[in-house]
Amino acid sequence: DMWGRVRKQAPKSSVNGLLAEMIAKFEEEPPLGTKSSAQGDNPNNLLAYVSNLTLNEGGNRLDQEVKVSVIGGGDLGIAAVLSIMAKGCVDKLVLIDIPESSTKGGTTDLEIFGLPKVEVSKDLSASAGSKVVVITANAWSDEQSYLSVVQTNVDMYGGIIPRLAQLSPKAVLLIASQPVDVMTHVAWRQSHLLPTQVIGVGCNLDSERLSHIINISLVANSTGKQAWVIGELSENKVALWGNMGPGTDQLQALTPVSNSTKPLMDRALEMLKGRGQRSWSVGLSIADIIHSIVTDKKKIHSVTTLAEGWGGIGSKVFLSLPCILGENGSTRLPGVALGSEEEMKLRESVACQVNLFMQLRL
Predict the structure, then answer these.
(1) Could you tell me the sign of the dihedral formed by the alpha carbons of 313, 317, 322, 328, in that order?
(2) If both were cysteines, with which of 14, 196, 213, 251 could 329 make a disulfide (CB 3.0 to 4.6 Å apart)?
(3) CA count, 13 A, side-chain hemisphere, 200
(4) Cβ atoms within 10 Å, residue 79
(5) Are 210 and 240 spatial neighbours (Cβ–Cβ below 8 Å)?
(6) Whole-prediction pTM
(7) Residue range 191-215: average pLDDT?
(8) What is the mean pLDDT of residues 74-81?
């Protein structure tokens, strides 16, 4: 019938689109109310159907149930759960506390008080069918050397990453374990997933903070510029500009910092140094990234990704770079020509990561 044709063709998330389709169809045929019962459905049935419709507002949602799993029950895992639920972008969230992690202890309280849509488990199989799997677990202690710390985390990942990838082969793995650049690389190797499916939280938090500072300083909304932090999550991180105004070609948006704007950028980066990365702030950053993935937002984030081929980088290393995030994972923006100081920092980060991987047992 006519209403059936309208429903099949109408956009799922646009009220205006639905109205436009209805108007067009009703102009083609007389209203249902003028027809006899033999000609079509009773108008009351139509009203009953409309009364049961639910409309999605503010961002596209994927048709299927959106499930996200968080691996690791420490402060960061709990912060991620609370932040993701506050964003309201998931239908089900699973928190899995694994015994190998040294960051444990918060899951009991979640079980005691309970949260709608949140399941607490100790079994990795509870993550099956996730759209995003967040890894917050760390297995190291403060007494270990840096190499031992990383190796302990690598060994822990070897026991969970292949299984998680098998349970959710279409998921995006979002890595928040430390050191995030190295552990994202490890997760990519161990999972055998596409590079677009394995990202780390990287410099997303620093980028959002830097952009906020620059916006206040420059009233960037009027200039259309946005600041980005890229590279290694360390003192070697690098700042870039993005021309993100309406109509801008995203793939041509990045530009290096010029001599005229470098003092402002240096000052903004200096202000960032006083801001630590607490569990709740990283949790908010995780939720920000997940929201862009599950709503297919196509927003640009600075996240840890495979850097090979970007700006002349020839090694298989993972660094934070601006990526467009959506339901299929990440799409890396092209490289840009950097100034000598910024390029030196990136080269140093690449060399350090390559040297570390030569010492690790994978």
Answers:
(1) positive
(2) 196
(3) 28
(4) 24
(5) no
(6) 0.73
(7) 91
(8) 91
